[in-house]
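Lab notebook, entry 334. We have the chain sequence and a SMILES string for NAP, and the next step in the workflow is to get a structural model of the bound complex before anyone spends time on docking refinements. Request logged below.

Task: model protein plus NAP, output structure tokens.
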Amino acid sequence: MTRPPRVAVVGATGLVGQTLLTVLGERFPDLQDVRALAESSGGRTVSFAGRALSVEAISEETLDGTEVVFFAATSAVSERFGPWAAARGALVVDKSSRFRMDPEVPLVVPEVNGHLVHRGGQLVASPNCSTIALVLPLFAILRHRSVTRVLVSTYQAVSGTGRDALSQLEAETADAQDGAPHGTAYSKPIAGNVLAQCDRLAEAGYTLEEWKLTRESEKILGTALHLSATAVRVPVRVGHAESVYLELDRPADPVTVREWLRATPGIVVVEDPDYPTPRDAAGTDDVYVGRVRRDLHDPNGLHLFIVADNLRKGAATNAVQILERSLSAETVPS
Ligand SMILES: NC(=O)c1ccc[n+]([C@@H]2O[C@H](COP(=O)([O-])OP(=O)(O)OC[C@H]3O[C@@H](n4cnc5c(N)ncnc54)[C@H](OP(=O)(O)O)[C@@H]3O)[C@@H](O)[C@H]2O)c1
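Result returned:
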């Protein structure tokens, strides 16, 4: 493609859609034809690279002729329009969970398995925000050691649930005395609280978010991880954190592990006595890893603390990196 591609962002009025427009404007400021799609127009505008874009209601007509479509709405919207757009030759990058575990659809973190993205029409799924931050350090370590067990506890920001959840946090923060939920994103108050449930409960007492961490990580890394997770929502606006325990096949010195991590694109190692925080990560595109240390009781055990911006690397930036991979790919499948 010699001229810039025609791009559509579906869900352009949401948190991920807005961040997608920001990251696209940073990395592709020359894009001319960018469509902002949502459920309805509502006379709204959104901003792209300093220009105001009119929001349009999604339909086959508003998607027609687009060469790249980012889906950041609901799974139902991705299901309805994603395969349709890909069949017409568009690169479709889906931020919803709809196609992530479909064996026909690559689930991509470009630094890990970007080779699965090719030039031209293709449906590519972008993983869950916590999964993206987790698989980068795991990928770095798996090049040198096998992993026999992974235990993860997350501390996930409210923006991970979307704009309605941020409104709930703001309303509860403004009225801290009342102690009741001020919204429907969470059934318990999130301000001043910690909720040991992200998404709904599913099989075996694990939530959907916990299953996503387990299944998506194994699909991306192509290996069994024996991973169990506890996903927790905390009253932070932006930036997911994860405490990770790895059981390796043999010991690894933390100094060496930091070298492996540092050598992996997309990772920033934070050295002791400092440590990464969601505020450090917010607004950036890297995955930060700190507190790298050997377990006190098992020489094969290793602890890490991981932080990333859930709206950027956990969503928008990863999706835009998939577009970059596609544009630079040489192979066009027959
Ligand atoms: N937030 C995160 O950190 C994160 C990370 C990774 C993946 N994701 C995924 O990204 C997607 C968007 O999340 P979000 O946090 O940005 O949600 P959000 O802030 O609630 O925004 C939802 C967006 O979807 C649009 N939408 C809803 N129903 C639609 C329909 N029937 N047709 C067209 N557009 C529709 C909304 O448009 P209107 O303004 O017209 O209602 C709005 O633009 C979700 O699938 C989510 O699971 C989110």
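Notes for the group: The pocket of NAP is lined by residues 10-17, 38-40, 58, 72-74, 77, 95-96, 129, 159-160, 162-164, 310-311, 314-315 (CB under 6 Å). Worth checking against the assay data. The two ends are 17 Å apart (CA to CA).
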